[in-house]
Amino acid sequence: METDLISPDFIFESSWEVCNKVGGIYAVLSTRAKTLVSRFKDHLLFIGPDCWHDKSCPYFKEDTTLFADWQKAAAAEGLLIRVGRWLVPGSPAAVLVDFTPYYKDKNSIYGRLWEDYKVDSLHAYGDYDEASMFSYAAALVVESFYKYSLGPSKKVIYHGNEWMTGLGLLYINKYVPAIATIFTTHATSIGRSIAGNNKPLYDYLPGYDGNQMANELNMQSKHSIERQTAHHVDCFTTVSDITAKECAQLLEKPVDVVLPNGFENNFVPKASAFTKRRKEARARLLAIANALLGEDLGDDTLLVSTSGRYEFRNKGIDVYIDAINRLRYDARLSRHVVAFIDVPAWVAGPRQDLQERLASGQKYDTPLPNPQLTHWLNNMNDDKTLSMMHYLRVTNAKDDKVKLIFTPCYLTGDDGIVNLSYYDVLLGYDLCVFPSYYEPWGYTPLESVAFKVPCVTTDLAGFGLWVNKELGRYGELEDGVKVIHRTDSNYNEVADAIEETILEYSQFSTKDVKAARMNAEKLSKKALWSEFIKYYYEAYDIALRHAASRMSTNSAK
Q1: Strand partners, 458
Q2: Quick one: how far is CA 421 from the chain centroid?
Q3: Chain-centroid distance, C-alpha 417
Q4: What contacts 98, CB < 8 A, 6 or more positions away?
């Protein structure tokens, strides 16, 4: 019973993606904030990196009056912080901390970490130092605020997301043990690395040793901080059942509770606004396709897409391209299909020739050169998506009923070609395909169904497994989500299943389409934060009980 759970008086939560929009964790935290703020008000404080320094952060508004006395005390302690509001629904309180002053001390910080927790930082490279210094600075913010404004009479949580917050969680565990700590890994660093290096993660999972694989894949330091944090916090969590298995095997620590990723649907347009924006998105997508291809494709064209981070194998971009290619040769297909790949790559800029065609408003009957691409890339000859399209001879020829278009930019509304935000573009699609190989949760399919766009995912994605659990069986297209069985070794079966699903949807009647879209939306409402926040309250309870037990044990000694 939720009423029996211990509730915190104050929550600190940190992530590299607080007020810093770089990936999926930003979506998790920023959409969850509103639900938490409605309960905890300004007893919730997010901590993120001050990556902007003297420039303004577009996701943050400074407020010198918020926790004003503590701000002065923190400045006197030498903390370089900006306090204000995160500009997301709920407007939660947030601190941006400058972590650069701690680089000079990193060797002694790492030395203490080894002495206290046997964390191996010797093999650090890449973003390890940057993340660790932020993590250390965030912990100093927590310690300072706690000592100045809270104290041992308050039940306090410090929640860190991903290995990048591990060092700070361990610091709090040692130096402010009255604070209860929660660690959420959204994907294990070693599991992602195994998958990204084309090794079979799932068939051999019971036989993998995380430490051994970390040595083999040169991931010792990230794996070490993640593993030791998981073992020492008061509550260890992850985002899905599939990643929980990964944690138990590779980190040798079962999670205490699974925290599935919900969302707020307040960004989904309602009623007439929805219809209007869907029409606008479809018109724009078809205009781009027609200008690029020299075609005159109408509104009866089936518009399909995939999107997400550019992890070619992990996100299933390879199998998506393969499936679209197979559909080109399917004689049963009676409709035109335009399939988009909305994945940001190393973009050089928008194509001027395409911009000119779009601006003219004329119809063209000849394609542009490279009619598979909306923006030029810096690495045209090395890009994996273009290479696979060339290998399969996907040329978007006139007589092809199926066309494949790569939009290799962030859809923020100002890319020079699409000029719509991702959510606005999403409205225009008929079907989205996310055939992930490695996907701890899967925000893109959840966003898709929230916008009433049926989608395809796999049972290697946390979201796909959740759908199956909700339905009590594998999801089908009429449910709004088709869940395909995927393993380490059934790539061809997955490609065939995607092809069949797109073909099936292309033959749906208007009534069938309407039902699938309604069911997609219904399913999405079961994944609102109002449904999932209870798991966080459970995690808070577990952490606070462990911390209380630790403190009573210490005081008895």
Answers
A1: 484
A2: 17
A3: 25
A4: 50, 53, 80, 81, 137
Q: At 41, which amino acid appears?
A: K
Residues 6+ apart with CB under 8 A from 322: 388, 392, 491, 495
- Minimal CA–CA distance to 117: which of 70, 59, 60, 183? 183
pLDDT band at 557 (very low <50, low <70, confident <90, very high): low
To the question of pTM greater than 0.85 for the whole model, the response is yes
Reading the block at residue 212, the tokens are 């051994």
Q: Tell me what the pLDDT averaged over the chain comes to.
A: 95
Whether 238 and 258 have beta carbons less than 8 Å apart is answered as yes
Query: How far is Cα 308 from Cα 411, in angstroms, rounded to an integer?
Result: 11
Task: Supply the DSSP string of 261-322, one letter for each residue.
Answer: --B--TTS--HHHHHHHHHHHHHHHHHHHHHHHT----TTSEEEEEESS--TTTTTHHHHHH
Give dist(CA 106, CA 131) in Å, integer. 11
Calculate the dihedral angle through the C-alpha atoms of 318, 442, 425, 386, rounding to the nearest 10 degrees. -20
C-alpha closest to that of 316 among 451, 494, 466 = 494
Per-residue model confidence as pLDDT tens digits over 269-292: 998 999 999 999 999 999 999 999
Contacts by 76-81 with C-beta closer than 8 Å and gap 24+? 77/140, 77/144, 79/137, 79/140, 79/141, 79/144, 80/50, 81/50, 81/141
- Please spell the DSSP secondary structure of 135-196, one letter per residue: HHHHHHHHHHHIIIII-TTS-EEEEEESGGGHHHHHHHHHH-TTSEEEEEESS-HHHHHHHH
Cβ neighbours of residue 510 closer than 8 Å, sequence gap 6 or more: none
- Residue 428 clears pLDDT 50, i.e. is over it: yes
Count CB neighbours of 41 within 10 A.
11
**In Å, how far from its chain's centre is CA 512?**
31
Tokens representing residue 414 in the block: 């100002």
| Mean pLDDT of the region 156-162 | 98
Half-sphere exposure of 11 (CA within 13 A, CB side): 25
Q: From 468, 480, 490, select the one nearest 513 (Cα to Cα).
A: 480
Residue 323 is inside which H or E element, if any? helix 317-328
Joined tokens for residue 290: 């027609």
555 — pLDDT class (breaks 50, 70, 90): low
With beta carbons less than 8 A apart as the criterion, state whether 74 and 43 touch: no
* Tokens found for residue 191: 């599991």
| Beta partners for residue 185, in sequence order | 238
Q: Kindly state the tokens that stand for 485.
A: 């069985």
Q: Residue 455 corresponds to which amino acid?
A: C
Work out the burial of residue 486: count CB atoms within 10 Å of its CB; fewer than 13 is exposed, 13-18 middle, 19 or more buried: buried
